[in-house]
Structures are given as C-alpha cells and as structure tokens.
Design a protein that fits this description.
Beta-galactosidase, Chain A, domain 5; 1 helix; globular
Length: about 290
C-alpha cells in the first residue's frame, strides 16, 4: 500500500485525476497525460503539502492557541519551527469512499472531538471531472456535535509548470489587498496591492517576485497561470474569500509549480475572527472550486 493508502481514479474526456485515501488529497490531475497539478508519488509524502485538504482550518493558528465562546484551547504544534498549528486536522487520517462513479468520487470523514478542537464535524469532499470544465471539488461540512464550532476551509493545489521557467510564467490573482505577516507568517494587517510588486490583477509575468502571501478583497472568481504552452484557470465560488499564493523555487527537482490555494478565511482566523465561520449544531457549510485548461 502506498503512503497515501488506496488511490481512487476518475476520468472525464481528456482529464484524469487520482485522489488518496489518506487526507482525501488530490494526488494528481492530468490532461492528455500531461500533469496539470503536481503529482504525489505513491512511495513518498506530498511535497510541501501538495494537494492537501485543509479542514477545519487552512493555513496557520498562532501558537496553536485560540479562545472560542469563552474557553481557551491549545492545539498540538504541527509546525514547531514557527510555533504554529498548521493546515488543519485531516491530512493524515483515512477517509472512506462514500460514492464513486467513472468521473466522480466522494470521500467522507467524521472528525471526532480531540485535544485543542473538542468539536464534531462530518466532512465530505467530492471530486468530479467534466470534459469541458475540468476538475470540480465540492465540500460539505455538517456540525454533528452539540455545541457551536469554529471552522474554516482551504485546499492546497499546486499548478504544474512542466519545467517552464517561473520568471516568465504569467499570473493573474484578482485581489485588491495583500496580507502583511510577522516572522511566524501570521497576518498583522493588510495593504492595497496597487503600486506594489504584488499587484497581479492583470495577467503579467511573475518575474523576480517570489510569493508566499495571502490575498484578500477578491475582485473576481478565477486566477490564471499561463505559459507559452497552455493556460490554467483556478476558479472558486463565494464560499472562498481569500487566496494563498506560493511560488517555491522548485517543488520537486527540476519542476516548477505555483500553489494557488482557495481559503474561506486567512491564517489565524481562529484568533482574528477574519472570515471565521461559526457552525452551529446541525448547520451545514458548502464550498466549490476547480481547475481547467482554457
């Protein structure tokens, strides 16, 4: 068995995708056999959380500590170097297939109360492929507990550049503000992108700019990554109000990629309250995003 457990394959037209049992991650998306997203090797861990599902919070919680409804909570520090609880609680748990067809699969997981997050959620992530619109990812979360729960959602897809130079790849990020962070990558405020190197509201080369930044005040519902060979579009619905964009020098040896991460809230929302979702008992949250070639 691979590091990610069983793999579930779906196909639609020229698109093919694989999803993992462990973490319900996007192990890879291909078009005509060419990688659209970074592939997760069957015999290794996902590089830099590639393809990860980030529930019940995306990004980081400062010190793993937060206060909710008058009670202090302390999460384990999954990013000890920076002293943060990072990327939620479901990356290393097994998900069960709830429904599967040739072009779609739904994976589910019941998140049990635990240290730092004593809340109970039912989670379902559905991946589907359409010959024209590509990959669609639908998430449904229900609070199955007896008390309200703090919640946020995010995903960690890396769009593969296929060895194309990062500097000359063109990027569009429809956001009017960029988040400022401290040394622990916790937001301290935001500032307008206008007149700064972080203004990607029009498609332009990435150049020498290197990003590991959150973006807010979204002005559209699609980001674009274009090379001389192809154009990729990552789109989202109104449930996702923030983006994290990351341009690592190399994700795997010799391969460039750009992570464009849809998030319902920014880093440390459990403390700041920015974009934080309060799920009451029985309440349901849904969100959708996807990737296609255009």
């Amino acid at each position: 068995m691979s590091f990610g457990g069983r793999r579930f394959e779906i196909a639609g037209g020229n698109y093919r995708a694989e999803l993992t049992e462990v973490g319900a991650s996007l192990a890879g998306l291909w078009w005509n056999g060419s990688p659209v997203t970074v592939e997760i090797p069957a015999d290794g861990l996902p590089p830099k959380s590639a393809g990860a599902v980030l529930l019940p919070w995306p990004n980081r919680i400062a010190g793993g500590h937060y206060r909710f409804d008058g009670t202090e909570h302390q999460l384990p520090l999954s990013e000890p170097a920076k002293g943060n609880a990072s990327h939620g609680l479901v990356r290393w748990v097994r998900w069960e297939p709830a429904r599967q067809a040739g072009s779609s699969v739904t994976l589910r997981h019941d998140l049990v109360p635990q240290i730092g997050y004593p809340f109970e959620l039912h989670l379902e992530v559905s991946y589907s492929l359409d010959p024209d619109t590509g990959l669609r990812v639908d998430t449904e979360v229900v609070n199955t507990g007896r008390t309200a729960a703090p919640f946020g959602a995010g995903f960690h897809p890396y769009l593969d550049l296929g060895g194309h130079d990062l500097d000359t790849a063109e990027l569009l990020v429809p956001a009017a503000a960029v988040l400022e962070t401290d040394d622990h990558q916790i937001p301290t405020g935001s500032s307008p992108v206008a007149g700064t190197p972080f203004d990607f509201r029009s498609l332009r080369p990435i150049g020498e700019v290197r990003l590991d930044h959150g973006f807010a005040e979204l002005t559209g519902t699609a980001a674009v990554l274009r090379t001389e060979r192809r154009t990729l579009e990552l789109r989202w619905d109104a449930a996702y109000r923030y983006l994290q964009v990351f341009t690592p020098p190399f994700l795997t040896p010799g391969r460039n990629a750009v992570a464009i991460e849809p998030m319902s809230c920014p880093a440390d929302a459990f403390n700041s309250g920015d974009g934080l979702i309060r799920l009451e008992p029985g309440q349901r949250w849904t969100g959708s995003w996807g990737i296609r070639l255009v």
